[in-house]
């Protein structure tokens, strides 16, 4: 298939304005108004503009995960905390006063106050923790305290003294700022709920201030309550003000997690470890896909969870936790001369054509005819083939017999050479290149998870490497031949196999240079000469050198 028409060039589009005369649209306007009156206020007529382009999900690409997630803790504000409670049901907080009467074997009639430690003083009976208890629970707690002290025949009466409601201002980034009534023991969460909750687009769930008399009395973070149920107890007074601050840096988390949401962070605290702690990944999650912006440019990353935990995150990042098992989608990366997004989630059945139309290429720099794919499964097979060839080479070398001491010495020398060569060869990492184009045509092949589509940049040079004196890039010239480029790199070394030179095209194709024209962007690989009196060893080592050169575009020395 042709490459150029399938790519989306990163250039602005211009749409000509549509001009309609007044005489043409006035009758239609009056007709619409008449219909609106007949249908009544409950019905409206909407004119939807057609979309400009299909989404990737409709033709192979999956929707961007985490784009429309609600803020974490937004589900707190559903009206349940703002409901009025009876005086008996309210929980006690420091500062509350209680009317306490005891009669029987022990007598008392007075007012006790809950101190800052959340306790009331029962005189000779000692202190009794009551903060967080309702009135009925306080009565039972006092009876238990008396019983533990050996006082059984006692009647207990407890009643809150501060039953008058307080009026508290709620402002900042809330849905319905205003003044709300409640009990002094009501939590900050209750007053926020009465104000319609925090604005999910602009409000902070982690920076909530309590003002009293114009001074800040304290601040609240709702995340500990949402995660662990921890909420500071504070007694509100008439005229207090609750101010919800502006939303801080936020990161969306989705995928293989228990808490899919948009998480807010304080400045400098956004890391992969903190996000994972709150998002709570499932046991199946093994990798994280990060999409965001860094320094005004698109940012994409895919890495294992152990590496993700140390990664700093930024405002607006979208993180998808993924399981390293087959699913409905695959992730494909694009490298090279592109602009915009470089990672695309696709349906598992997607082909190369499905993603090409969403790649914004840099038309001035991209060499579309040089497109190729780096595939992990191919790299694994290339590595296995090299390893198998090395194993056979070592076996034939180490098991060879010698007819004389001189031949044995030669065998030992060759064995040492092969061992050193095998050590170098085992350290190479194949790229797994899949050649998909030839003659300006690109095959519409099926994609695999982890594929990297490479669109090389246009080049005016020829790279000469391997067994040359000075490997370097030389400006291409149509009149130059192979010997000219080798001469420009200082000539052959004394180890060069001058009859075994490979030419690698930008699209990954490999040729012998004897019958191939050298073009701009090509790479010349001069392979080393294998010095051995054993023809089979020469053949085997030459084959391995060729495999490594094709798999890595690198020549290793002997």
Automatic annotation (TrEMBL):
Keywords, in A-Z order: Signal
Residues of the Polysaccharide export protein N-terminal domain: 88-159
Domain Soluble ligand binding stretches: 461-511
Gene3D superfamilies: Outer membrane lipoprotein wza domain like, wza like domain
Superkingdom of the source species: Bacteria
Keyword Signal: yes
Any GO molecular function: polysaccharide transmembrane transporter activity
The keyword NADP is annotated on this UniProt entry: no
Stated name of the protein: Polysaccharide export protein
Biological source species: Nitratidesulfovibrio vulgaris (strain DSM 19637 / Miyazaki F) (Desulfovibrio vulgaris)
């Amino acid at each position: 298939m042709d490459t150029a028409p399938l790519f989306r060039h990163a250039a602005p589009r211009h749409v000509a304005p549509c001009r309609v005369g007044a005489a043409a649209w006035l009758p239609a306007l009056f007709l619409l108004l008449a219909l609106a009156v007949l249908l009544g206020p409950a019905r409206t007529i909407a004119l939807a503009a057609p979309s400009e382009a299909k989404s990737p999900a409709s033709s192979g690409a999956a929707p961007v995960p985490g784009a429309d997630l609600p803020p974490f803790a937004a589900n707190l504000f559903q009206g349940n905390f703002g409901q009025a409670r009876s005086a008996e049901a309210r929980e006690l907080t420091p500062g509350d006063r209680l009317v306490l009467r005891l009669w029987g074997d022990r007598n008392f009639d007075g007012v006790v106050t809950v101190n800052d430690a959340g306790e009331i003083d029962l005189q000779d009976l000692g202190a009794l923790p009551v903060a967080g208890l309702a009135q009925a629970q306080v009565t039972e707690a006092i009876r238990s305290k008396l019983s533990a002290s050996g006082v059984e025949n006692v009647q207990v009466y407890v009643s809150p003294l501060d039953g008058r409601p307080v009026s508290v201002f709620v402002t900042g980034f809330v849905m319905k700022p205003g003044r709300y009534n409640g009990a002094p023991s009501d939590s900050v969460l209750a007053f926020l709920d009465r104000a319609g909750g925090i604005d999910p687009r602009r409000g902070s769930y982690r920076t909530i201030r309590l003002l009293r008399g114009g001074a800040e009395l304290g601040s609240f973070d709702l995340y500990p309550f949402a995660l662990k149920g921890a909420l500071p107890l504070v007694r509100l007074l008439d005229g207090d003000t609750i101010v919800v601050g502006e939303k801080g840096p936020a990161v969306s988390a989705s995928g293989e997690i228990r808490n899919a949401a948009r998480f807010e962070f304080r400045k400098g605290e956004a890391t992969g470890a903190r996000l994972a702690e709150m998002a709570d990944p499932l046991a199946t999650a093994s990798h994280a896909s990060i999409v965001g912006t860094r320094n005004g440019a698109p940012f994409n990353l895919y890495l294992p969870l152990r590496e993700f935990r140390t990664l700093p995150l930024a405002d607006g990042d979208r993180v998808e936790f993924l399981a390293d098992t087959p699913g409905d989608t695959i992730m494909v990366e694009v490298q090279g001369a592109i602009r915009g997004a470089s990672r695309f989630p696709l349906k598992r059945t997607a082909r190369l054509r499905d993603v090409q139309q969403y790649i914004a290429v840099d038309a001035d720099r991209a060499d579309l005819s040089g497109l190729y794919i780096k595939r992990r499964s191919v790299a694994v097979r290339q590595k296995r083939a090299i390893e198998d060839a090395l194993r056979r080479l070592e076996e034939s070398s180490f098991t060879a017999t010698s007819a004389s001491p001189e031949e044995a010495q030669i065998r030992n020398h060759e064995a040492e050479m092969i061992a050193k060569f095998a050590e170098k060869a085992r350290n190479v990492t194949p790229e797994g290149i899949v050649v998909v184009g030839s003659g300006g045509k690109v095959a519409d092949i099926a994609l695999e998870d982890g594929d990297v589509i490479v669109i090389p940049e246009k080049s005016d040079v020829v790279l000469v490497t391997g067994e040359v004196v000075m490997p370097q890039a030389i400006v291409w010239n149509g009149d130059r031949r192979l010997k000219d480029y080798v001469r420009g790199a200082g000539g052959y070394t004394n180890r060069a196999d001058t009859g075994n030179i490979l030419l690698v095209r930008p699209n990954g194709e490999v040729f012998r240079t004897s019958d191939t024209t050298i073009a701009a962007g090509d790479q010349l690989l001069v392979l080393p000469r294998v010095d051995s009196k054993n023809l089979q060893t020469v053949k085997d080592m030459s084959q391995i050198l060729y495999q490594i050169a094709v798999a890595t575009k690198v020549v290793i020395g002997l």
